[in-house]
Write a structure and sequence with these properties.
This protein is about 50% helix and about 20% strand. It is an alpha+beta fold. Helix 2 packs across helix 3 (about 65-80).
C-alpha cells in the first residue's frame, strides 16, 4: 500500500520550472498586449461617445463643417483624445442628410519589430442618429448618390 501512495505522490508534484516559466511568459505577453492596445480602444470609445453627443444636437444640420470640427475638438480635448481621431474627421453633406465620419488606422509597436494595426471606423448619419457609430455607408457612394 505504501508504494502505491509514493507513486501517487510523485505524480502530484505540481508544475515544473518550465511549466511555470511558460505560464509567466504567456501572462507577460498578454499584459503587454493589453497595456499597448487598451488606450486606443479607450480613445475609440470616446470617439463614439462624441458622435452620439453630436447626434443629439438639434442644430447639427445647420452647423458648418468648422463648427462640427470645433465641437468634436472640444469634446476630444476634454477627454484627452489625441492623435489620429482628431485628424481623420470628415463631414459629407448630402441632399437629405449629413454624414460625420471618423475613419482612422493606428499602428502601435508591440515587441521589437512587431506592430499591431488597429482600424476604427465611426460614422454618424443625421438621417439615422440612433444607428450612430457603426459604419453604415461608403462615403464615396454617398457623395455620388446625393
Amino acid at each position: 500500500m505504501s508504494s502505491v501512495i509514493r507513486v501517487s505522490l510523485k505524480r502530484q508534484r505540481g508544475m515544473s520550472y518550465w511549466g511555470w516559466l511558460l505560464v509567466i511568459a504567456v501572462l507577460g505577453f498578454a499584459l503587454t498586449c493589453v497595456s499597448k492596445m487598451a488606450p486606443a480602444y479607450v480613445d475609440a470609445r470616446y470617439v463614439s461617445e462624441a458622435l452620439r453627443t453630436l447626434g443629439e444636437n438639434p442644430e447639427l444640420e445647420n452647423m458648418s463643417t468648422g463648427q462640427i470640427k470645433k465641437e468634436l475638438g472640444r469634446f476630444f480635448l476634454i477627454n484627452n483624445v489625441r492623435g489620429e481621431p482628431t485628424k481623420a474627421l470628415q463631414v459629407v453633406r448630402g441632399a437629405k442628410s449629413t454624414v460625420v465620419s471618423i475613419n482612422y488606422e493606428l499602428r502601435q509597436p508591440l515587441i521589437y519589430n512587431v506592430d499591431v494595426v488597429m482600424k476604427f471606423n465611426k460614422q454618424l448619419d443625421t438621417a439615422k442618429p440612433e444607428l450612430c457609430c457603426d459604419p453604415l455607408i461608403d462615403l464615396e457612394q454617398f457623395r455620388k448618390r446625393d
